[in-house]
Specification:
The protein is an alpha+beta fold. It is about 30% helix and about 20% strand. It contains 7 helices and 8 strands. It has helices spanning about 55-65, 85-90, 105-110, 120-130, 130-135, 155-165, 185-195; strands at about 20-25, 30-40, 70-75, 80, 90-95, 105, 145, 170-175. The strands form 3 sheets. It has a 4-stranded antiparallel β-sheet with strand order 2-1-3-4, with helices on one face. Strands 5-8 form a two-stranded parallel ribbon. Strand 3 (about 70-75) and strand 4 form a beta hairpin. Helix 4 (about 120-130) crosses helix 6 (about 155-165). It starts with 17 loop residues before the first strand and ends with a helix.
Length: about 200
């Protein structure tokens, strides 16, 4: 992980903008160079990676899991390497897989924002299109799910992971193949939420 030292604070209300300049990295047999991109609030950037190896490395760099070997990542005009990693993590979410914990549906959503009440949880589950399915369980949002996600199917688990993400209102959402689990109908509900 990178570990910045400056006490740069970004209030949650301030939109996050990211500027990547001439970025390069090499880790094992994964490398890329000369990458430039800009992203501001509401932008969706898709990285096509035929080998499916460079995109995860880029997400690691943007999340602060590994340092760059060349170039710069700027967040609201500050170098990412200068920002405290704990402060950065208050504003960015990395979604890699269908990660759920054994516990209730509500507990899984609350992981990102522990102070969330039942109303907030139901609201975000409705927005992602999962509330109708959850209402099929006798205990609703208090229904238990196993570590493997049972009784939810993969698309429903992806929606649950996205609900967890959106309830915390991150300034930047980084996703590694999570949207591949979604139907076109689900995507039509999720894309506007990503842009909020």
């Amino acid at each position: 992980e990178i570990s910045g030292t400056e006490s740069v604070l970004f209030p949650k209300e301030i939109p996050i903008s990211v500027n990547v300049q001439n970025l390069a990295t090499k880790s094992g047999d994964i490398s890329f160079s000369g990458l430039n991109l800009e992203a501001s609030k509401g932008d969706i950037i898709v990285i096509k990676d035929e080998a499916m190896r460079s995109a995860p490395a880029l997400l690691d760099l943007l999340f602060g899991l590994s340092p760059t070997t060349h170039g710069a990542i700027e967040v609201n005009n500050y170098h990412l390497q200068d920002i405290s990693i704990s402060e950065w993590r208050n504003h960015v979410t990395l979604l890699r897989d269908l990660e759920v914990l054994s516990g209730s549906i509500a507990d899984n959503v609350k992981l990102a924002k522990m102070e969330s009440d039942s109303s907030e949880i139901r609201d975000i589950l409705e927005k992602v299109g999962l509330m109708n399915r959850i209402q099929e369980f006798p205990t609703g949002i208090h229904a238990e799910i196993f570590r493997n996600g049972h009784p939810l199917i993969k698309e429903e688990l992806a929606l649950l992971v996205l609900a967890r993400c959106f309830i915390s209102k991150p300034g930047l959402v980084l996703m590694d193949d999570l949207l591949n689990y979604l139907s076109k109908e689900s995507l039509s509900k999720i894309l506007p939420l990503i842009q909020e």
